[in-house]
């Protein structure tokens, strides 16, 4: 569900482009997995995507951007954009005491502190791992009272540090923005990296002269898990019930993967 926050921004800012959306629902959440596992998943997904084909890949996941981006950029001959650097640059423009909420894997990678301090060495960065957030969203528990308590628990240490800016260091987390704003003081600004990776994609397409000169096609949705479950849960954010196709992820890296796509 996390990548839907990025897809929404892409569709708004790049209305002439066509999108292929892949959600690795069979292996979510990534945030508690090892780097080797995540790299393997990303390689398989990109092998399948490039067979479609695609002209650019946008890694709409902070964890995979932190742990796999450099490796797959060296292995694939299409532009691949990660979400962390655009988010870090935006955060530095917003404040000087920056809180980052992210998955345990993204926090452990130190990717956000490194990216933020590369832009501004004087910025202070405070991180908080929030392993419960993704399962709460994926299981449609956003509006439960317990969710507000969990969000408060994780934001409290950052507020104790006097943050003036909060970065959504996971693409799922904007789905919790209504709950998060209940906990944040009004003066604390939020940064959704989805907005800024979209701007970066727009600039990259123009620079590489890859802009679409024809009418955009309907977005196609693919998942590695249950298509019906994804369609039903995504309705509240997409505003319509998408047609979702299933891909068998373990076979994605093989030439036979194209035949593994099953229309649901």
From TrEMBL:
Enzyme Commission designation: 5.1.1.3
Catalytic activity line of the entry: L-glutamate = D-glutamate
A Gene Ontology molecular function term of the record: glutamate racemase activity
Active site: 61 (proton donor/acceptor), 170 (proton donor/acceptor)
UniProt-listed Pfam families: Asp_Glu_race
Entry binding sites for substrate: 30-31, 62-63, 171-172
Source species, domain of life: Bacteria
Top EC class of this enzyme: isomerase
Record pathway: Cell wall biogenesis; peptidoglycan biosynthesis
Keywords for the protein's UniProt record, in alphabetical order: Cell shape, Cell wall biogenesis/degradation, Isomerase, Peptidoglycan synthesis
Record-stated family: Belongs to the aspartate/glutamate racemases family.
Cited function: Provides the (R)-glutamate required for cell wall biosynthesis.
Protein name: Glutamate racemase
């Amino acid at each position: 569900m996390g990548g839907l926050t990025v897809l929404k921004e892409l569709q708004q800012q790049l209305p002439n482009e066509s999108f292929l959306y892949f959600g690795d629902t069979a292996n979510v959440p990534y945030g508690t997995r090892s780097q080797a596992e995540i790299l393997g998943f990303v390689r398989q997904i990109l092998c399948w995507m490039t067979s479609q084909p695609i002209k650019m890949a946008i890694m709409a996941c902070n964890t995979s951007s932190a742990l796999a981006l450099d490796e797959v950029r060296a292995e694939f001959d299409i532009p691949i954009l990660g979400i962390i650097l655009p988010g870090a640059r935006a955060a530095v423009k917003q404040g000087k005491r920056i809180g980052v909420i992210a998955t345990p894997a993204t926090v452990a990678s130190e990717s956000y502190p490194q990216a933020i301090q590369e832009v501004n060495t004087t910025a202070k960065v405070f991180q908080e791992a929030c392993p419960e957030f993704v399962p709460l969203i994926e299981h449609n528990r956003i509006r439960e009272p317990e969710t507000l308590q969990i969000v408060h628990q994780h934001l409290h240490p950052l507020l104790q540090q006097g943050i003036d800016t909060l970065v959504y260091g996971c693409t799922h987390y904007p789905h919790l923005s209504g709950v998060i704003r209940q906990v944040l003081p009004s003066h604390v600004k939020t940064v959704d990296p989805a907005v800024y990776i979209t701007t970066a994609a727009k600039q990259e397409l123009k620079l590489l002269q890859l802009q679409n000169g024809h009418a955009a096609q309907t977005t196609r949705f693919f998942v590695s898990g249950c298509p019906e479950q994804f369609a039903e849960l995504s309705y509240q954010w997409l505003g319509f019930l998408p047609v979702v196709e299933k891909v068998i992820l373990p076979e994605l890296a093989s030439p036979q993967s194209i035949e593994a796509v099953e229309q649901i």
